[in-house]
Amino acid sequence: MLFEFDADQRLLADTVREVVARQCTSALIRDIVDKGADPGPLWQTYVGLGWTELTEPDSAVELGIVCEELGRATDPTPFLATVSQFAPLAPEVACNQAGAAVYSGVTAAHDGTDWRLRGTARYVLDGDRAERFAVVTDAGVFVVDAGSVRARRTPVFDPVLHVAEVTFDDVAAAESARRVVDVAAARERALTAMALHTVGACRRILDLSLEHVRNRKQFGVAIGSFQAVQHKAADMYIAIERARALGYFAALCLAADDPRRALAASMAKAAAGECQSSVFRNGVQLFGGMGFTWENDLQFAIKRAKAGELMLGGAAAHRAAVVDHYRALEGNRAAHL
């Protein structure tokens, strides 16, 4: 594996950063929250630039680059749900329309003619504005149009994030809508993208905190000159770099179809969750508690980082998955002795 970005990947990272800095500004985020502004034009920009085409497993690193930068900008579009969650479950469907993934809560039964989907899925990312759903059931993955389901947005602490409760009330799905998909592999891609998205939000917290401690003065000097402040900033940086390294290692495993990819994805998600905990705490403290106020842009980043920890399983759940993996390996070794 090559553990450094190549020239094309560096160019992609620079391009995404420039586009997002120009078009996904904090002013836009505030307009969306305060005035109900439409993020549709920004979504169409992503589509036009080809970012929604990063759906193949071998483009996992490139997808991670985009997801990290969008996490840093508190992206208000359905990109994360569509490209990292819906697309792996429906690989043959183009992602120029918003999609969402339903991983649990829905059952499928065959009535002799069609399949019938029943159940309610909670906390579906972008479920209220998706145009299509990829629904995981014991009978396979079904792709259905949003018009056949009932979706209700659920209020969450991140005011930009769309999370919904989606109800499938005897929804008819033809056999042609059913797909046999490696759901575990799809979930690994979703975990890795979510981990890097969370890392991006944490980077934003660090950037804003460093800017603040350089400008905020106490006793006639910048508070960034105080050793205690420097230690907190250093702890934040180390946590971010660790989580970022594990995130891109997981992306490399996915791109190379490495057998460690499931373990790497859980390690990346656990590290991202631990990272946000440390960065959240230290970032708010360095701001003197002002990070919670509406006037401060830090609030958007800390809310997105916390949401990233809670979605698709938190750090504790994925640490347990890592432990289970190694216990299984030890059991296999013992069985062969």
TrEMBL record:
Keywords: FAD, Flavoprotein, Oxidoreductase. Its cofactor is FAD. It comes from the Bacteria. InterPro entries: AcylCo_DH-like_C, AcylCo_DH/oxidase_C, AcylCoA_DH/ox_N_sf, AcylCoA_DH/oxidase_NM_dom_sf. Residues 186-322 form the Acyl-CoA dehydrogenase/oxidase C-terminal domain. It holds the Pfam family Acyl-CoA_dh_1. The keyword Oxidoreductase applies. Belongs to the acyl-CoA dehydrogenase family. This is Acyl-CoA dehydrogenase. It comes from Skermania pinensis.
